Amino acid sequence: MLLCDLFAREGFRVEVAIDGASAISFLEQHEPPSAILLDLLMPGILGTSVLAYLGSKSRFDDVPIAIVSSSPDLAPRGYRLFKKPLKFAPLLEFIRNACRGRGSLPAPS
Predict the structure, then answer these.
(1) 2-101 in CATH: which number?
(2) C-alpha span between 18 and 21 (Å, rounded)
(3) Which residues neighbour 74 within 8 Å (Cβ) at sequence distance 6 or greater?
(4) Please, which residues bridge with residue 80 across strands?
(5) 3-state secondary structure the chain
(6) What distance in Å separates the CA atoms of residue 83 and residue 71, rounded to the nearest whole number?
(7) What are the angstrom distances between the C-alpha of 61 and each of 68, 81, 93?
(8) What percent of the chain has pLDDT over 70?
(9) CA separation (Å) from 4 to 13, 49, 74?
(10) Which of 5, 54, 74, 94 is the most buried if burial means most Cβ atoms within 10 Å?
């Protein structure tokens, strides 16, 4: 949950899903997020299945999605990839740019 804390300190509202099924359930019940960071190797439903779900719903077409993985060779092409171990600065830049593009950048503190 360290990433969650770091993004929260930067002023972002963060939602965390512990597995693929929880991610899909959350996405079905809420408005599309400003951006999604997705681990491919989650328990239960894999991140690739979450990507398939996202791709099947037009309401997520404009949501920037980044793949976070310790197995970058599993990542499908066309997504921004962040390899584990993660460096926070590039992730923060991705999220800031995604939120800026959707008009949801947090106010400076």
Answers:
(1) 3.40.50.2300
(2) 8
(3) 40, 41, 48
(4) 66
(5) CHHHHHHHHCCCCCCCCCCHHHHHHHHHHCCCCCCEEEECCCCCCCHHHHHHHHHHCHHHCCCCEEEEECCHHHCCCCCEEEECCCCHHHHHHHHHHHHHHCCCCCCCC
(6) 8
(7) 19, 18, 21
(8) 93
(9) 9, 23, 24
(10) 54
Given the structure tokens 């404009």, which residue do they identify?
A: 62
Q: Residue 21's closest CA among 40, 41, 49, 62?
A: 49
18-65 pLDDT tens trace: 999 999 999 999 999 999 999 988 888 888 999 999 999 999 999 999
24 and 50 Cβ atoms separated by less than 8 Å: yes
Q: How many CA atoms lie within 13 A of 57 on its CB side?
A: 14
Handedness of CA 41, 69, 61, 94 (dihedral sign): positive
Query: What gap in Å lies between CA 106 and CA 22, rounded to an integer?
Result: 25
